[in-house]
Amino acid sequence: MRITRAATPLGVRSILDCRYRGGRYRPVLGYNLTSDQEHESMVQVLAAIQSQVRPYATMTGLTFAQFVPKYLDRLNGKALAALDRPRTILTRHLVPFFGIRPLQSLKLEDGVAYVAHRRAQGAADGTIRRECGVLLGLLNYAVANEDLDKNRLLALDLPVGAQRIRVAKPSELYRIYQLSSSAVQRMMMLALLTGLREAKIIAIDQEWIIERSDGEWLIPVPGSRLKRVPEELPLSPLASSFLRGTLPRIGGRFFSQWRDAGSFKHRWAEACARAGVQDLHFHDLRHTAATWLCEAGVEYATTEKLLGHRLPGMGEQYMHNWKPKLRTAVTTLEAIAIERFREAAHESGAGGWPRHGVQRRTHTPSTSAGWWESMPASRSAISNRSLHTSQLKGVSI
Questions:
Q1: Which domains, and CATH codes, for the chain?
Q2: What mean pLDDT, rounded, does the chain reach?
Q3: Which residues face 17 on adjacent strands?
Q4: By Cβ atoms counted within 10 A, which residue in 80, 109, 230, 266 is the most buried?
Q5: What is residue 99's three-state secondary structure?
Q6: Crossing angle of helices 170-178 and 182-194, rounded to 10°
Q7: Are the C-beta atoms of residues 43 and 96 closer than 8 Å to each other?
């Protein structure tokens, strides 16, 4: 299913190209439509197509689309921290597929057909699994609300996505840094120095930062049940400098040029392509930071706490005062980052530019002298004493 656009004397015409139950349909959605208008028109057209060929026209009760608002009200009542994801899954994927099907008509084969449909669209198994989770949650609530007698999709085999294992190499990070804009550099380094996800880095606001005796701390907005974040996160001097950048600003978000992770992912893909780095997601930087901590011998529980994960068992209820351990962890990350970038810079040659066949950008990068050369040399030196922001003066980031 896709939407094509063509210029006509009447304007830009949007055409939906889809297949349903063996038939192909190419209705015109309208002219000069915005993306939201195209989506709204597509939902209406698909509902009309399904109403013409459905074998369940005599069934009564709420349709799938009619029950969606009830389910969203239920989710709102649970005060979820991240409601955008289930709402997007429902409006962009589940409603267009199931249309005006009565809830009573949904069978196991419909769930199987949905999985096959999404795979044909190129969706990853992990993505399909999350979408099926929302589908099953909606049907379970319909049963609990007595709008459905039973959930016939409970036996649906959910796709199991392969666990992604990708740790960035120092040479890859160095090339991306050298060939990226200042804003992308700052995003990348903050991910390596804090372990935060890209959406949370983009959302960092001036109001989240507090000053304590041992330095600056970040108090982020709580994450969702699945994407947890630490209640408080120490910032190393290098991380604080990358967060603020060099351009003057007045309060608010530090990365206001991007609305969310979706609007940033294209810039990251461009940066990786420019540096000749393949198959490196921004989220892999979080894996890289965790791996660095593991290699440095940082306690597993401290790493989990820094990443915002829930500790196993009941220990979390009895273990307190994580602040010194978290401060040591981010100081270790800073030391490792300096060491890795210094090694990569020396391997690439005195000129500071990669020698891996990567094209140099037409404009001069924001860093002529690397910050890694201006920092203390040994990891032990950094781990034994705190760096002060004054040591970073004159370092362009």
A1: 54-163 (1.10.150.130), 170-392 (1.10.443)
A2: 82
A3: 2
A4: 230
A5: coil
A6: 150
A7: yes
